[in-house]
Design brief:
This protein is of the alpha+beta class and 82 residues long. It has a domain of 49 residues. It contains three helices and three strands. It has a three-stranded antiparallel beta sheet with strand order 1-3-2. Strand 2 and strand 3 form a beta hairpin. Helix 1 crosses helix 2. The N and C termini lie far apart (47 Å). The N terminus is likely disordered.
């Protein structure tokens, strides 16, 4: 995967949005999203294929916004009985 060097300045990196935008839009790869949710890559792909978690296509690549992963966690959260 190609990333921009540390001197990219205002251009930012290929997997995140420039600093002026809320950082919750930081984009993660399938592997990074799986790691963030602490599940397998196959499990992450199943969530994506079943459209249970929102994703974006950048070129031919799938990316997940951290805010969408957090939203998914809130949606599937099971409340306590007490």
């Amino acid at each position: 995967m190609h990333t921009l060097d540390g001197n990219a300045g205002a251009r930012g990196s290929l997997t995140s949005v420039p600093n002026e935008v809320d950082q919750t839009y930081e984009l993660l790869t399938v592997a990074e999203a799986a790691q963030w949710l602490k599940i397998s890559i196959a499990g992450m792909r199943r969530l994506q294929q079943r459209r249970l978690v929102t994703f974006v296509k950048v070129g031919g690549s799938i990316r997940f916004a951290k805010r969408d992963l957090a939203s998914y966690v809130e949606r599937v959260r099971v409340a306590s009985i007490g």
